[in-house]
Design a protein that fits this description.
The chain is of the alpha/beta class and 282 residues long. Helices cover 25% and strands 26% of the residues. Strands 1-5-6-7-9-8 form a six-stranded mixed β-sheet, with helices on one face. A five-stranded mixed β-sheet has the order 4-3-2-10-11, with helices on one face. Helix 3 links the parallel strand 3 (62-66) and strand 4 (107-110). The longest helix has 14 residues, at 174-187.
Length: 282
């Protein structure tokens, strides 16, 4: 068994294990999920991809999750059209590795997309497992995974939880795409941020739920519900409006991805009410 296969098998053994990162040196981080590069496709916007990577590289407190379909992986019997791709999957992989190497220490987790999964199902080659190894044994969760990040401020600690999976199925309307990430929130509960890719459309919205308190529970005084707020993120893509997206009448895709700001802070100066403050921008 080669190194790539051993690594892939070891990560599958931990499918339910949360990827944990201790980043207490930061009270504020940016999480920029990257997906749907489709390296190898003629329409892949390499310059915009490079711009996002450079932005992450330039900031000590910026990190990413790689959420699938980073390669197009066209073959003679695949949905991506072989003769529209500029390069072979092996060449696309080398280009992808070169792009991501400058931020290899900022990649929190890698998942597998439908395009890479298609190659694995046909010939058993898992390019995303190989990428995880070549970037320094980045945690690999092919079917999606949960990430826990600990932040710190003034000796206090706070946990941020996120769940990312590449995505599934087809959807043309904004509502249908948003419904998918809401369905994900039904399957995986009690995290701060859900990240779904695949549909190449940037959408940011909240899911608010009334929940019981986590602490300070008393039987001698009133106990109150609280609001658990979660960010629901649909990431964009990096394909220009040409080829199959134009031919099939899809709406022009959003080029780029949302940027998530996570800050561990207290309500006012001197107060002990530390909490997470979440924002996302497109």
């Amino acid at each position: 068994m080669n190194k790539d296969q051993r690594y892939r098998d070891s990560q599958r053994d931990y499918e339910n294990q949360i990827v944990m990162w201790d980043l207490v040196q930061f009270s504020k981080i940016y999480l920029v999920p990257l997906a749907d590069f489709h390296i190898g496709a003629k329409a892949s916007d390499i310059e915009t991809i490079r711009g996002y990577i450079d932005w992450i590289k330039a900031r000590d407190n910026a990190f990413t999750i790689l959420n699938g379909d980073l390669m197009n992986c066209a073959g003679k019997d695949t949905a991506p059209e072989l003769f529209e791709d500029l390069i072979t999957p092996d060449t696309a992989y080398r280009q992808l590795l070169a792009l991501l190497t400058p931020i290899k220490n900022k990649i929190l987790m890698i998942t597998c997309g439908g395009h890479e999964g298609m190659i694995f199902r046909r010939v058993g080659a898992d390019y995303m497992a190989r990428l995880a190894v070549d970037l320094g044994d980045v945690p690999y969760r092919p079917n999606g995974g949960m990430v826990g990040i600990r932040l710190g401020k003034s000796g206090h600690r706070g946990m941020f939880w996120a769940y990312a999976v590449h995505g599934w199925g087809g959807a043309r309307t904004i509502g249908a795409k948003v419904n998918k990430v809401e369905e994900l929130a039904k399957a995986v509960g009690n995290v701060h941020c859900y990240i779904l890719s695949h549909d190449h459309t940037q959408v940011v919205h909240r899911l608010n739920q009334r929940v019981p308190p986590k602490s300070k529970i008393s039987f001698k005084r009133p106990v109150y519900q609280r609001t658990h707020r979660a960010l629901l993120i649909n990431t964009g893509g990096f394909l220009q409006y040409e080829g199959y997206v134009r031919r099939k009448g899809y709406v022009p895709q959003d080029i780029g991805t949302p940027r998530i700001l996570v800050e561990f802070k207290n309500a006012s100066k001197g107060a002990e009410d530390y909490h997470l403050d979440l924002h996302a921008s497109i």
